[in-house]
């Protein structure tokens, strides 16, 4: 028994050691030559039964019919932290598969600097499809120097969805500015309603709230400077944002115990009529316009976009627009087959993804509204025609990972009133000073 | 001096496990030790930073100290269940006639349930909105004002994530201690009882001194396992809210795989190794000294 255990441990240790052995030299892109069918892999972090995987699988099967020997192996790990762990281990072992999901994070930047990713901008231009993409979809995937190394497969806008009946019941109206948010919470609480549904377990939704005030007050450059520790969060903008969040917390805007509520818990609070406002992207439209919503909620959902603030430097129609986690292409595994398949995939993808009720990052295909969905579905998607030029980038894809973890953890404490805005900004500044130089030197 | 054949047997039987131990345990520890003097993100070149990681850990990292404090509380809660409650139950079982096997099986059951399932179970038990088992019971007995979101409240979360781990292995340690108590010579106990000793005296004067070596082994096992505890806190709260339930192990894991700071994570892992060795040393020292005094 002991031996078995030791053997197992030895196995794990050796595997870990092998995977941690250094990196090789990346090969140049080989776009010339014959297309030879083989199995290629795509390491994803998307829902296993979601529209994207279904559509990609369908297209890959068709490609395989005309290319003997070709197969696309889709390996998905929807849980993002587990996925990132896999990706980092594979990257460290220089074993990245042909395709892999990643955001334009500081870690991905390091991979790019090591020559491990294919230049997607050049590739899309070569494939003559670059201009077909929605500019905001590509911008979301870009690093802050403007370079592009990931292909987007989604295009979603983030709104505040609210329950008109509950607003009426509490006698409140849609807030005109972000600073009006806290005023909603008292009357809504008095009406027995949780003002804002929030998934506190995942960290990123609260980090979105943190990003709003700085985006409105100082524009998108603020984040670029902050992540390099060139500005301090304890400055006027950061302090205002922190105080605003602390006020939301002390005004009872979020459910008690929100930090242990997960993604679906928050959604359920809103769709069951227990919460009045829910911040989420258009990817949840199907759930928000479903004919199965309970009475009192059905027909009473509307939305508003990110409110402005006094002295805002960004336009009202600039807010968070995301094209989801992107797909990187391994430079080492890039060959004529990979390029040819990608060309086929992108030429077929757009028309099919819109049939699942989702927008495509490639413009030109109209979304097919699911049967039975309320009029809200089309109305929400129509906002795509009113979008501005700037995007409020999610902070979790931009900050160095250590600061990001600390920010997400301490935001919970800030909103719960365990730490003051001053303590919060001081801690984040210290974390940035320690960690930002490791990624942005 | 062993005869030739015996020496050969010793070599044949001892060398392979020893080699495995060196490869699987000593080598990674040494590797961590080396790595702890470097800054390394897994993809770029390693950079030698001397003892900077240790200085950072001991002087500049507030999360580390918070996690260390949390780990000690976690240890205390686990030991309460695994040494205290399990000893109590094991002792109690010796007085039970019927249904002994059922109780043993039921108590042992959590040890074989997957950690993920246990985490889900406790997520429901601790839930506040909708009200979970604990809050429902509090409501039922009229203590509704004590109801709280156990996993979101910074004052309760640490004990809340520690208790499932303690509860989980309670049955296992109970079984070990129960077996030890069974081995206590019956005639000694009977003689004591004939002299009018109470059950408490039988336990403190005869049973416990007799099972002390087993109890020390159990304590070492429980302590080292608890110091390495990771999965339930990680799954239940991921160290949150804030760092309220962050343990050294979860912090090390995040440092390695989220912050991709393998050098610093190795520094924390070296600390965990040292901490385990010190803990075992302390147990030996304290208990040996006490047995020296009593004998």
TrEMBL record, chain A:
UniProt KW keywords: Signal
Signal peptide feature range: 1-15
InterPro entries with a match to the protein in the record: Bact_solute-bd_prot1, SBP
Keyword Ubl conjugation applies: no
Name this protein carries in UniProt: Sugar ABC transporter substrate-binding protein
UniProt organism field: Pseudolysinimonas yzui
Taxonomic placement: Bacteria, Bacillati, Actinomycetota, Actinomycetes, Micrococcales
UniProtKB/TrEMBL annotation, chain B:
Domain ABC transmembrane type-1: 68-283
Compartments it resides in: Cell membrane
Chief subcellular location: membrane
Topology of this chain in the membrane: Multi-pass membrane protein
Keywords: Cell membrane, Membrane, Transmembrane, Transmembrane helix, Transport
Cleaved signal peptide residues: none
InterPro entries, sorted: MetI-like, MetI-like_sf, UgpAE/MalFG_permease
Entry annotated with the keyword Cell membrane: yes
Coiled coil: none
Highest taxon, organism lineage: Bacteria
Keyword Secreted: no
GO cellular component, one term: plasma membrane
Chain ranges passing through the membrane: 12-38, 71-93, 105-122, 166-184, 210-227, 262-287
Any single GO BP term: transmembrane transport
Family per similarity comment: Belongs to the binding-protein-dependent transport system permease family.
UniProt cross-references to PANTHER family, sorted A to Z: BLL4140 PROTEIN, DIACETYLCHITOBIOSE UPTAKE SYSTEM PERMEASE PROTEIN DASB
Name by which UniProt lists this protein: ABC transporter permease
């Amino acid at each position: 028994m002991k031996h078995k255990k030791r053997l197992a441990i030895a196995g794990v240790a050796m595997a870990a050691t092998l995977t941690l052995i250094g990196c090789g030299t990346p090969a140049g892109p080989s776009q010339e030559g014959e297309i030879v069918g083989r199995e290629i892999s795509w390491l994803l972090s998307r829902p296993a039964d979601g529209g994207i995987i279904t559509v990609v699988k369908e297209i890959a099967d068709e490609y395989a019919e005309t290319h003997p020997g070709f197969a696309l192996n889709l390996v998905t790990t929807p849980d993002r932290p587990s996925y990132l762990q896999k990706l980092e281990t594979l990257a460290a072992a220089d074993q990245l598969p042909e395709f892999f999901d990643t955001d334009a994070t500081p870690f991905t930047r390091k991979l790019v600097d090591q020559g491990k990713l294919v230049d997607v901008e050049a590739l899309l231009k070569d494939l003559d499809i670059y201009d077909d993409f929605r500019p905001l979809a590509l911008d979301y995937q870009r690093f802050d120097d403007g370079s592009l190394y990931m292909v987007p497969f989604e295009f979603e806008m983030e709104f505040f969805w609210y329950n008109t009946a509950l607003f009426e019941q509490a006698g409140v109206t849609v807030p005109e500015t972000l600073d009006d948010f806290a005023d909603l919470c008292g009357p809504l609480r008095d009406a027995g309603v949780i003002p804002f549904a929030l998934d506190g377990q995942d960290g990123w939704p609260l980090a979105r709230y943190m990003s709003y005030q700085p985006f409105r007050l100082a524009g998108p450059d603020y984040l670029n400077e902050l992540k390099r520790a060139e500005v301090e969060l304890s400055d006027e903008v950061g302090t205002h944002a922190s105080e605003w969040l602390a006020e939301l917390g002390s005004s009872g805007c979020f459910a008690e115990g929100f930090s242990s509520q997960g993604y679906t818990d928050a959604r359920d609070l809103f769709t069951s009529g227990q919460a009045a406002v829910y911040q989420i992207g258009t990817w949840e439209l199907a759930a928000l316009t479903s004919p199965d919503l309970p009475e009192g909620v059905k027909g009473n959902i509307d939305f508003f976009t990110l409110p402005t603030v006094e002295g805002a430097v960004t336009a009202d129609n600039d807010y968070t627009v995301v094209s989801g986690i992107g797909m990187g292409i391994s430079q080492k595994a890039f060959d004529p087959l990979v390029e040819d398949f990608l060309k086929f995939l992108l030429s077929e993808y757009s028309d099919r993804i819109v049939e699942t009720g989702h927008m495509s990052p490639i413009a030109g295909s109209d979304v097919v509204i699911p049967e039975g969905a309320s009029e809200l579905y089309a109305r929400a998607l129509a906002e795509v025609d009113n979008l501005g030029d700037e995007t409020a980038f999610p902070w979790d894809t931009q900050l160095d990972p250590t600061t990001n973890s600390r920010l997400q953890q301490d935001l919970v404490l800030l909103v719960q009133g365990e730490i003051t805005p001053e303590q919060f900004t001081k801690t984040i500044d210290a974390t940035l000073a320690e960690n930002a130089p490791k990624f942005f030197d | 001096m062993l005869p030739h054949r015996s020496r050969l047997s010793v070599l044949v039987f001892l060398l392979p496990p020893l080699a495995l131990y060196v490869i699987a345990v000593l080598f990674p520890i040494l590797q961590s030790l080396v790595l702890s003097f470097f800054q390394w993100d897994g993809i770029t070149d390693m950079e030698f930073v001397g003892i900077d990681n240790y200085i950072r850990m001991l002087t500049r990292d507030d999360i580390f100290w918070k996690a260390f404090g949390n780990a000690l509380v976690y240890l205390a809660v686990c030991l309460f269940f695994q040494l205290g409650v399990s000893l109590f139950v094991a002792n109690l079982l010796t007085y039970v006639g019927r249904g002994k096997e059922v109780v043993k099986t039921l108590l042992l059951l959590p040890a074989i349930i997957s950690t993920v399932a246990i985490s889900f179970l406790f997520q429901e038990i601790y839930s506040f909105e909708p009200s979970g088992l604990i809050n429902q019971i509090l409501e039922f007995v009229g203590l509704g004002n004590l109801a709280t979101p156990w996993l979101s409240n910074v004052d309760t979360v640490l004990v809340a994530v520690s208790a499932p781990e303690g509860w989980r292995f309670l049955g296992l340690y109970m079984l070990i201690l129960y077996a030890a108590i069974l081995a206590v010579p019956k005639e000694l106990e009977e003689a004591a009882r004939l002299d009018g000793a109470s059950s408490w005296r039988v336990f403190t004067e005869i049973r416990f001194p007799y099972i002390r070596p087993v109890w020390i082994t159990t304590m070492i096992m429980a302590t080292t396992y608890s110091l390495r505890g990771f999965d339930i806190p990680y799954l239940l709260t991921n160290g949150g809210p804030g760092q309220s339930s962050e343990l050294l192990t979860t912090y090390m894991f995040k440092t390695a795989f989220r912050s991709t700071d393998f050098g610093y994570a190795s520094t924390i892992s070296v600390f965990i190794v040292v901490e385990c060795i010190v803990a075992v040393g302390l147990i030996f020292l304290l208990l040996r000294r006490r047995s020296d005094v009593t004998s």
